[in-house]
Structures are given as structure tokens and as C-alpha cells.
Amino acid sequence: MNLILQGLHTDRAAVEAIIQLAQPAHVVDINAHAWRCEGVTYSDALKAQIDAASLAQQVDYAFIEAGRSLADFKLVAMDMDSTLITIECIDEIADMQGLKPQVSEITEAAMRGEIEFNESLTRRVALLKGLDAGALQRVYDERLQLSLGAEKMLNAIQAAGLKTLLVSGGFTFFTDRMKTRLNLDYTHSNQLEIIDGKLTGKVVGGIVNAEEKRLTVERVCAELGVPTSQAIVMGDGANDLKMMGVSGLSVAFRAKPVVRAQASVALNFVGLDGILNIVA
């Protein structure tokens, strides 16, 4: 196995002790803040040691089979809220109603897997009833920001010929704009019902939950004529686990513990472009 170590501003001295734990055959400098330890003998015990040491140094690590590269993949599927972008859109919309604490509490519980997603979304959207639809544009204009490394990551994967899918339990208002802004190939999300310029507190059609996210990844892969093992799937919450589970490489980005525990790799400190050092 190869062990990739990387940090935002990490130098080689900071990872030396981690490298010694891994006992690699060779160490390759990927760049000033990332290293590939080659010929590492993987074990669960070693992973536990590396995990603890990396956390202490605020370094991200990833065990990956030698020789894996972007060329092995055809699709990158991403969650939107708190993955591709830094915010939870529904929480920020709720803030326009003075209801952010109530909505955020439900959001957090859902992302930890403590509340079933359909219930959580229905409850949160209901709280938005009567809000002027102009609040959505305000959230987009004033609060929506791309996550660290998002544009660099997307530029690289698009240049390599991979297709992109944004699949979200959030809303079409935002995914449509992300699709245009970032030249994404596919998007799928929930549609808020708006009547006479006001949110009704309801969603139009079916809810994009964990199962629908998985089905969406499968549908897009089928359309591309590739197995889901050729998909990289990125997410942060419990409702991302099913689509991550069918992927060839799952990436937990700034994720909840339940997601980090099940993902192939976790990016806790570096940006989304950290995936480029893992599948160089």
C-alpha cells in the first residue's frame, strides 16, 4: 500500500514521526506539503497508530493501493452543503426567518444519522413557510462560498476528462447555479415549492435522501456505461453513506465521525484538492 500524508502548511519535519511509524520502502515528495510513502505494510493496528498521530499533527492521511490514479475513474459525485460549499443552505435560509438555531439543530442531528433524513427535511422546510423567495438569492449572493480547494479539484478532474455530479439533499435553486458556475455535468436535488413569491413550507416531488443519492450515482454511471467502482464520491453526512458505499473511492470531507469511520479516505484539514494527491 501507499500512504499519502498531507497538510495545509505542514513541513516534512512535522510528518517524520508518522513516516517512521509506517516504515515505507520509499518516500516521494508530491509537493511541499504532501508525501507518498510507498511499500507500506497495512494493518488495522498501523492505521490506528497513523490516525492518532496524524490527528495530533493536523495532517490528513490516506492508505491507497499503489498505482491508483485519476485515470481509474470516470465520475466524481459530490454532496453540496458542507462539502462542495461551506454552508448548509437551509440553515442560512432559516436565518432569514430568525429560525437558524432550530433548523441547524435538526440538520446536525440528521447529518449524524440520529434523525431519518426525510423527516428532518420535511420538518426544516415546514419552518420556512411564508418566507419571501428572495431570501434564496440573498443566501447565494451573501453567504455561499466554495469549500477550500474546490475549484482546483474540479479544474483538474475536468481536465482529466472525468464527469461531475452534484447530488444534494439541498435545493435546486443552488444546485442549478452551481452547475452553471462550475460547468458541472449533472445535478440532482430537492425543489422548494414557491407560490406567489413565498415558500410554502413544502418540497415538490420526491425527496433526495440517502437512497435517492445512491440511485442517482448508479443512474449516472449506467448512463456513462461504467461501473460505480469507477466513481469517486465525496460527502460529509450520514445521508451520503449509501452513495459512498457503492463508489470505488469514498471521500469524507470535514465529515461527521460516522462518515469518517466508513469512508475510504478522510480530508479533515486540507481542501477538496487533497484528493489529487491521493490519486495523482
From TrEMBL:
Top enzyme class: hydrolase
Keyword Lipid biosynthesis (UniProt): no
Cofactor requirement: Mg(2+)
Keywords: Amino-acid biosynthesis, Hydrolase, Magnesium, Metal-binding, Serine biosynthesis
Pathway per the UniProt entry: Amino-acid biosynthesis; L-serine biosynthesis; L-serine from 3-phospho-D-glycerate: step 3/3
Pfam families for this protein: Hydrolase
Reactions this protein catalyses: O-phospho-D-serine + H2O = D-serine + phosphate; O-phospho-L-serine + H2O = L-serine + phosphate
Keyword Nucleotide-binding assigned: no
Gene3D superfamilies: 3.30.70.2020, HAD superfamily/HAD-like, Phosphoserine phosphatase, domain 2
Annotated signal sequence range: none
Origin: domain of life: Bacteria
EC number(s) per entry: 3.1.3.3
SUPFAM superfamilies linked to this entry: HAD-like
Molecular-function GO term, any one: hydrolase activity
Similarity section: Belongs to the HAD-like hydrolase superfamily. SerB family.
UniProt name for this protein: Phosphoserine phosphatase
Organism annotation: Herbaspirillum rhizosphaerae
Gene: serB
